[in-house]
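Field: sequence (string)
Field: structure_tokens (string)

Example rows 1 and 2, in order.
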Amino acid sequence: MRKIFVLAFMALGLSAMAQHVTPLSIEIAEVKIDSLRSLYINEPTMYRASLNVVAQELAKNAEQLKGAKAELKDEQAHGKEMDASLKEALKMTAELKKVYSKEEGALKSMQKTIEKQQRKLTSNRRLNQDARDSYAQMLEKQQKELGYSLREVADRQRSIADLETSIQNWQTTLQAYKQEVVQKETELAQIEAIYKERLATLKAEQKSAKSMQ
């Protein structure tokens, strides 16, 4: 499981690619009542038709706002998912660092035990040469295996340290992304407020225009 985790997140080690929300590009239709009245002052039918044209433009704005809200919701969810993923990744890297440190300690302890046995063998003159040589070869082989294992642990420790740094870099990138999400949410609320204001103005004028002869 830990190997799978490391492989899954090693892609993070390449670089923390900047992420951005999709910018808003909604232009709310202007409701120029005074201009339309002046233009069609003696043509109530044309005036009502012109108001209907504005109503159609605002209807398009309503669809754009609906789409932007759905998009923002997805972006908010993405930020939350990535935040949770990175936090879990940091938690697991901390656990792996402890595991690797413990493994390194165990290997070094074994290494010291073998070195102690090697020193004892060197000082023991009562064993015959065959026994001494055989035991020495066994201890030497164990030392080599432990050396390989220690280098492997060191490599894993370096990899996990690099991964931890990469995750932290991604967290910094994510914070910038989340700020963009908040800013977009504010901008969208402002645009929607303008839309509602203009729609209310238009509806009031359409109601008034119905009584025009």
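Row 2 begins here:
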Amino acid sequence: MKYLLLLLLLGSILFSCTKKDIKPNIQGIVSGRAYDTVNKEPYPNLIVTVSEYQTSESFFRQSSALINIIGSGITDANGNYSFKYTTTGKGNTYYLSLGKPAANVSAIGPKHSLYPFNIDQFRKIQQITNVGGSLTYDFNVTKQYFMKSRIVITNDLNPPLIPVFQSAHNKIAGGIQIFGKSNDTSVCIPIFKNTGGFNIYFYVTNQKNDSSYFTKLMPLNPLIDRDTIQGPLYTLDAATFK
């Protein structure tokens, strides 16, 4: 008897519990907006979908297999999207999903950090628990613009030279490093749109005494009408940095 109970307990642990499938032809609707609060503009052409999954659970793990994409939409010029989805009856779990945006774009939910890419075709963003009802979900989008400028540096005894874009609300170093005592190169400097009070400056750091030396703030008034704009030429003598 004791061994029988043990076998039954082990079987219950190993048994995979599958949620009951949702009936077919149930319609729901999702809607919302994608807006870039940093650049102060709506974001168009963001793909939003509803994906249907077959999910099962056991003591050891949860598995989730994609059945199909059962509805999709795309944000319009004002960043708005709205579409219907229809269940197939083959799944039991539903997610609002996000198509992969452009390389210079990140899209997140209102209460979440940046989502990692899932192994599925689309990123799972929000589980839909009221299947057949309405869901409103907005996306916070940030598009990174760039300014391509030629930079000529001389007398840099403390490389690398680092450019920093600064506005009234944002500051971006961008990870750009220019090495060498002298250099003549072109770089794409990260920049934001519609933030006001544009400036750029450059600096170097003496690693021996941890002291940094800066150029003056250089005002900018760029027209950002494409992903990468052409910026001015900067001729810099590091010996004059303070």
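free_text_note (row 2): The chain is about 5% helix and 50% strand.
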